Amino acid sequence: MFPLKNITAGWSRKQMIPRKHQDSFLKRLGELKSNGYPLDRAIEFLLINLELNLTAVHQEVVNDFLNGKNLSDTLSKLGFPDFVCLHIFFAERYGNVEETLKDTAELMTHQRREIKRLSKLLHYPLFLFVLFIVVLSVLNMYLLPRFTVLYSSMGQDSDGLVSIISTLFNQLPFIFLSIGTVLLCFFLTFIYYFKNKDAHDQWSLLASVPLLGYYARHYTSYVFSREASHLLKGGMSFQEMLRIFSQQPYRKLLCHMGQFISDELKRGQTVHQTLLQLPYLTDELKRITEHGEENGQLEEEWSFYSRYCLSSLEERTEKLFAFIQPSLFFMLGLAIIGAYLIILLPIFQIMQTI
């Protein structure tokens, strides 16, 4: 069920710990580390508790730590997402691995809960949409042609409203197909264009997209301000912090940011002036950076802003969820009303002629 290690080729690149267990794995790993467990023993203990048949992995974990491998490397091999490994990578530099493990576990739990919630929100509207497509097909294939024949046999023409609605419903399949084709072509073009860009251009492009840009800017600002503030609070110099950013292997954008900011500072630019050139950061972060430089509390203000940024993302997501389902119900309601009008209006019109 779960991929085993190939002795000659190294660990499998497939996910070794199922995603549904990863948040609890991190939380318990943080608790064991806080209670004095060595990381290799803690991971081995948790793998046994998960009842995964990964006996060979136990020895690999021990060997990795004996050979100087970091926890972030081990978690990457165990199939954890890059954003988890990124947080742990930085935590290993500023020395707060236990708390970061617990915080990241909470972040994963929240992320999984929001995805599940979105899925539940979309289930019923999608069911109604499929049902509407079935009704539309029945109307176009059977009901509308019969009404047309009936009107012709009675020597009558349908009134304006019925004619308009009938024409609209006849054209809906073509409209849906056209919109779907255009969206698919646009999506494929965007992906092709996106993949041929470097990390800076990719995130600049994402930041310019309506709605998506809000999440891109706030997520990037959250990660940068959170990790930078922790490193600076840990006693690291600003240049050393930037060097760590440029050397981490999990986010190309942060590598670019670390190198770019370092180069600009060497040219005599301030941090605020440098961040102004990065379109995938929020304006609030840039203003806070300017204020932090002036009062000498940059790491404290970045730390506060990272928490504010995360709460802003959660609030925006709540508002988006509150908007999605009613909007879908409204559009489906209009479509269903239109279907009823097509069925009932011709009947009423025929009854008036009897």
TrEMBL record:
The keyword Ion transport does not apply. Pfam families: T2SSF. The keyword Transcription regulation does not apply. The chain crosses the membrane at residues 121-144, 174-194, 328-351. It is found in: Cell membrane. One of its GO terms (cellular component) is plasma membrane. Residues 25-145, 224-346 form the Type II secretion system protein GspF domain. Keywords: Cell membrane, Membrane, Transmembrane, Transmembrane helix. Belongs to the GSP F family. This is Type II secretion system protein GspF domain-containing protein. It comes from Jeotgalibacillus proteolyticus.
